[in-house]
Amino acid sequence: MISSGRIALTAAFSDLVRVRAGFPSHERPEIFSALPDDGENDAARDLVRLDAEHMARMFAYGRIATSVRPLGGGDVVGIPPAAWEIDDPLPRFAIGSLNLDLWSEPEAPPTHHIFVDRHQFDDWLAALKPLGFLTNRQVDEVVDPQLRAQRAVAERRLQSEDVQSVEFGSAGSRNNQTAADPPGIGPLLLSVEQVSDLIGRSNSTIYADVKKGAFPEGIKLGSSTRWKKSEVLAWVEEQAAKRGDR
Predict the structure, then answer these.
(1) SS3 129
(2) How far is CA 117 from the centre of its chain?
(3) Strand, helix or coil at 167?
(4) Which pLDDT score, from 0 to 100, does residue 121 have?
(5) Distance between CA atoms of 142 and 216, rounded to whole angstroms?
(6) pLDDT for 178
(7) Helices 136-143 and 40-60, axial angle in degrees (round to 10)
């Protein structure tokens, strides 16, 4: 629904979810009607919820103007940014309406349709990068925030060690490195054979684990595949942390 440079909140939100997560508008009801499964269904719901929170912040910051019109028709008035400082914006996004006088009460019966400034929304949406479809590893991180944090900490630790290796690398490591490799670090991209040597698993096992989402995905470079060394080493740290938790 579009009117005088405005777009209905529900339509704008559908566009955002389609761009960010790849979910068509007709799939959103299915996502929320699906049973909790501690897996892809919950991850999809969390993604849609994060999109709602992201968009609500743009409204609260005043970067995208919003307005309302009475359900039965009438004058359009602006919504103050403070009206978007709410704990859970998703119910409001789902129905595209609110109670203008009791905007902080989610259970209050709606009185107005919500609209978004179309030009400001288009400018913002055009600048956003799509998330695309999730890999199994990404789904795991959405479902388990602690796992995402552990992977991030492991990768930061490895990056820090690489920097120190560059600054304080031994003379032996300098003598053995190739001109194409940064000092003390070695190749940043690994072939499947190098990954196999590093983690002690066969090539076929590596590819099978990638397919199952149990190992980082490689980067396609023409007909070959390479793995980021930092991601492989972060995976090693992750496995070690799991053993330590047992």
Answers:
(1) coil
(2) 25
(3) helix
(4) 94
(5) 16
(6) 39
(7) 70
The kind and range of the H/E element at 207 are helix 203-212
What pLDDT, in 10s, does the model give residues 9-52?
999 999 988 887 777 777 777 776 777 766 666 777 777 888 88
**Residue 145 pLDDT greater than 50, yes or no:** yes
Residue 113 has pLDDT above 90, yes or no: yes
Going by their DSSP bridges, the two strands 2-3 and 6-8 should be labelled as antiparallel
Structure token digits, residue 103: 């905007």
Q: What gap in Å lies between CA 106 and CA 91, rounded to an integer?
A: 8
- Could you give the residue range(s) of every CATH 1.10.1660 domain in the chain? 136-245
Q: Spell 178-216 as b/e; 16+ CB within 10 A means b.
A: eeeeeebbbeeebebebbbeebeeeeeebeeebeeeebb
Residue type, 141: E
What is the Cα 240 distance to its own chain's centre?
25
Strands 77-78, 2-3: pairing kind: unpaired
CA distance 200 to 36: 37
What are 141's two structure tokens?
Answer: 């991180």
Q: What is the CA radius of gyration of the chain?
A: 24
* Contacts for 97 with CB less than 8 Å, ≥ 6 apart: 71, 110, 111, 112, 113, 114
* Residues 103, 85: Cα–Cα separation, whole Å: 10
Strand segments, DSSP code E, in 82-215 are 97-98, 112-117, 189-190
Correct CATH for 136-245 of 2.60.40, 1.10.10, 1.10.1660, 3.40.50: 1.10.1660
